[in-house]
Amino acid sequence: MPIREPTPTAREPEPEIEASAAADMDVEALAESLDAHRDVPAPEPEARPPLAETTEANRPSAADEKVAAALEAEPSAIPTDAPALTRQRQALTYGIASDIGTVRNNNEDACFGMQWQSITVDDRPDFGLFIVADGMGGHLDGERASGVAVQTLASEMIGEIYSPMLKDFNAGSSPTILEALVNASEVANRAVIKRVPGGGTTLSAVAIVGNLAYLVHVGDSRAYLLYEDKIEQLTTDHTLVQRLIEMKELTLEEAAHYPQKNVLYRAIGQNEQLKMERQVRALPAGSSVLICTDGLWDLVEDNTIRNVAASSSTPQEACDSLVRLANARGGTDNITVILFKAPGDEAIS
């Protein structure tokens, strides 16, 4: 069944949007789900430093304590307009790389990449799923937490969305892609709490349906959109220092050397109530999305990331080059990066 382009729906300020995922791509059901669904905010998790006892040496400063009251007002999503789904003539391409770095003794990062392209009489759109996680909590707890989170989210998405899309898929009785990502993240959160008590992890996941990117995120790993000569950070760092910057308690220069700059106030495995940042974006033709841990972005500037990606002949070459660059600049943390590129040809309407 050919895919028709639905009419974008104007959205009210602040609520988040979702698009329907359907094997037969019933665009009317897609449009209805975009109009009907409005995110119900989950309770804000209790702010919590990453798995360390409070001592006189690491006790929060007076400026830090100002953050607690502000966390209640912390935004959960980046506003966007409802995008339109189109089918691309070519498949997206991606690269993936993870490295221990030059200082650490083990790799607490985890990642997952999957691409599905089908050309059949059903004319289903292409799909992709990409996940990055950065564990915390010590030598074993960190790597176990990130691994459990990534494996659980991937398994849930394959079972709830991707496998059904190969069968008789009923969009009216199935979760939307964004709902499925949020639900899978909640399952991953419970799995980490149960299987890795005391561990935690960031989690950034992007599901691709045709030209649409569905994003969920918690922690300080990042997702970027690269297009033309621009790089746009799609995610928010859920860190103490970022909140202090937003509250104008710190400048960017001060934040770079702040002693608690890596303290997370929101992560997988830290609280039974999980609040995920989420959004949907239409990918411009030829654009790329890069997902990485702080082992990359903390050492390599955004513009340099863009330039390396733009000058590389393939996404895999870009990932390998970025890992080498981060290691050349010290490699002080584990480094993980996924880069996938949308087709540059015209879409099929």
Describe this structure in words.
The chain is an alpha+beta fold and 349 residues long. It has one domain (27-49, 57-348): Phosphatase 2c, domain 1 (4-Layer Sandwich). 30% of the residues lie in helices and 21% in strands. The protein has helices at 27-36, 62-65, 67-71, 139-165, 177-195, 240-246, 252-256, 294-297, 302-311, 315-328, and strands at residues 87-88, 93-99, 109-116, 127-136, 200-201, 203-209, 212-218, 222-227, 230-233, 277-282, 288-292, 335-341, 347-348. Strands 3, 4, 5, 6, 7 and 10 form a six-stranded antiparallel beta sheet that branches. Strands 2-12-11-8-9 form a five-stranded antiparallel beta sheet. Helix 4 (139-165) packs antiparallel against helix 5 (177-195) and helix 9 packs across helix 10 (315-328). It starts with 26 loop residues before the first helix and ends with a strand. The relative contact order is 0.20.
User: What would the CATH topology be?
Assistant: Phosphatase 2c, domain 1
How does the helix and strand content classify structurally?
A: alpha+beta
Count structural domains. 1
Overall 3D shape: globular
Largest sheet: 6 strands, antiparallel
Instruction: List the uncertain runs.
Output: 1-55, 66-73, 75-80
Classified in CATH, the superfamily is PPM-type phosphatase domain
